[in-house]
Amino acid sequence: MEYTDEDAETQIESDDTDEAWVMSHSSRVSGPIEEIAASMDEDEDEEAEAEAEAQAAIRAMERLQLQDQLRAAAEDEDPDDDDIPDMDDIPDMDDYDNLEEEEDPATLAPAATESNPGDKILSVRTYDVFITYDKYYQTPRMWLFGYDEHRRPLVSSQIFEDVSQDYAKKTVTIETHPHLNMSLASIHPCRHGAVMKKIIEKVANDESKEETTVRVDQYLIIFLKFMSSVVPTIDYDNTISA
Predict the structure, then answer these.
(1) Which of 82, 123, 187, 195: disulfide with 149, CB 3.0–4.6 Å?
(2) Which residues cross the membrane (predicted)?
(3) pTM, whole model, 2 decimals?
């Protein structure tokens, strides 16, 4: 234990009695209460810091011990070479002669189904519709390629069954498409060309309407409505998107 000047002791005599008492640390200089309180706070901070360091060291030691335990457990679980089975000793499917694998219903090919006359789904003919522009008559021209209920191409006689008898084999004939290089049923524009011209002139001369110009989509709707009278068995979508 180190002895300093601040540890000096002084004997104090009492005036009333012959007794005396000893004052320790008599050489220390007294300071204000603020300095004393600050000194005490510093001591408490140092103690708290030392305690935190001690706790951190304890936790580090615990982690090291846990890692050692896990490493030892892993080493105990490592199989010996004698415990590893030989690949030649493992049974194989070829070792069984009468082994039959059960069929998985999910992997079976779907069975071919035939159309039942009692089904509620109505099979109808369908058509591919092509529209070209005829420069001579200056009007659209419609071409048709049909399929039966089983998606087989229609022959000419079957197509004429769906055409109005007023136009069949007159304005509706089988001709070569100008771009597809195949024979299709065509509605000749010799009749509807003049009709379409009259419709456009009537709309253009209608002074009661502010907008007298006919847009392309509107013109095609008028054309399809006229074509519906030639081939009434085809359903047309005459709606115009906004």
Answers:
(1) 123
(2) none
(3) 0.47
Task: Give tens-digit pLDDT for 87-139.
Answer: 555 555 556 555 555 665 555 555 444 555 556 777 788 999 999 999 888 88
Q: Single out the residue of 212, 231, 228 nearest to residue 220, CA to CA.
A: 228
Domain shared by 161 and 223, yes or no? yes
Active-site residue 1, yes or no? no
Domain assignment present for 153 = yes
Q: Which residues pair with 23 in a beta bridge?
A: 10
Q: What average pLDDT does this structure show over 142-164?
A: 91
- Confidence band of 17 (pLDDT split at 50, 70, 90): low
Q: What is the per-residue pLDDT for 86?
A: 59
| Alpha helix (H) residue ranges in the chain | 33-77, 156-161, 189-204, 216-230
Residues 59 and 132 in one domain: no
Distance CA 83, CA 80 (A): 5
Of the candidates 58, 66, 190, 204, the residue annotated as catalytic is 190
In a domain, 4, yes or no: no
d(CA 71, CA 77): 10
Q: Tell me how far apart the alpha carbons of residues 113 and 209 are, in angstroms, rounded to a whole number.
A: 57
